[in-house]
Amino acid sequence: MSAPLTNRPMFRRLLRRLLFANRGRLFVILLALSAGAAVSAALLNLQTDAKRRLTAEFRSFGANILVLPKSPNAVSVSTMTAPPEAQLAPSPDPSVTIHSASLLYAIANANPVSSSVSLPVVVVGYSGVMPGSAPLDSLSREQSQASPANTQPIPCIAGQQLAAKMNVKSGDKVSLRNSDRHLDCVLTDILKTGDAQDGQLFLALLDVQQFANTPGKITAIQINASGDGSQVEQYAAQLRQKLPDAEIRPLHEFSEAQARVYSRISGLLTAATILILSLTVLCVMAAMTNIAAERRNDVGMMKAIGGSAHRVLNLFLTEAVILGLAGGFIGAAAGIALSMALGKAVFGVAAAPRLIVYPISVALTVIVAILGAYPLRRLANVRPATIFRGDA
What we know:
Residues about 1-5 and about 140-150 have low confidence and may be disordered. This protein folds into 2 domains: about 5-55 and about 260-390, no CATH class; about 65-250, no CATH class. It has a 6-stranded mixed β-barrel with strand order 3-4-8-5-7-6. It has a two-stranded antiparallel ribbon with strand order 2-9. Strand 3 and strand 4 (about 120-130) form a beta hairpin. The protein is built from 12 helices and 11 strands. The chain has helices spanning about 5, 10-20, 25-60, 135, 160-165, 205-210, 230-240, 250-295, 295-305, 310-345, 355-370, 385-390, and strands at about 65-70, 80, 100-110, 120-130, 155-160, 175-180, 180-190, 200-205, 215-220, 220-225, 245-250. By secondary structure, the protein is of the alpha+beta class.
């Protein structure tokens, strides 16, 4: 008597009837599964993309390694000979990118050409390219424009606080004096960083070296190395071997802060994903409970013609898997698109779609559908005689 349920055409007909007997509830279950898959896929895609985004965001904050003179002089500003760029070569790890900037600090009296007010200022010679320092990067030039033969005005950039003290704006000329040395520059930009740079005046490194009479000297090198704390420390160890006469200071707080932020964001997104999937299971269970009550007669008939409880449950399990796959495929695609929009809103750049998220999200949705079909297990205990007598 078990032949009908082992016959594949019969199995497919029964499955088709179960799926489309009540299209309203089928739509509710698909909607719940698709919504759960969409939100979980969005969160998972954001989580996998978060580390790369956070690395890019933290990278824009500035240096995480400092190269300084090994024996700093407490009386005056210490300097060191600028190392060749080859010694700052990228890390052997191809995933680590290196940006650097060389700095030379000097003290001078500054005043606008149109004013007699003179202020002592910190003059910074700058050369290099650092993330988040686009205005300063414009100062990097191949040769000094402070040459007497060059009539072009020397550009400089003032920090916001210094510009306010001197009452100057872009286009104004500023005169610098240090003992018998004199230099005039034209403000090309006003820098706003929220730190000590707001009170400094920036020129090209070659200009400050000539002004301070320290050719080839620098005060520090700022380096921004991408990667986690271990990768930054590995690159710092490489620098110590190449620059034995310099002090290499990795800013561990910088790397540790990045790791802490990522850990918290990752934990929050994981918890949110678990919560969403749990709520989806409850929604599917509620719908399946009503379906179980409606299918008692069908199950009784199946058992009466020879279907075992195991085969009946397999039929319902197959139904749940099909619903989970359908909801997963629809919801995961929508979720990845949603994550791209959320990434655009949070990071200013759309989150890159991660292909691994798609099968994971579909698999999770199938598991949710199977767990949500738990109420159908009660149908395995239905007795045909009870159904035919009309007992509840």
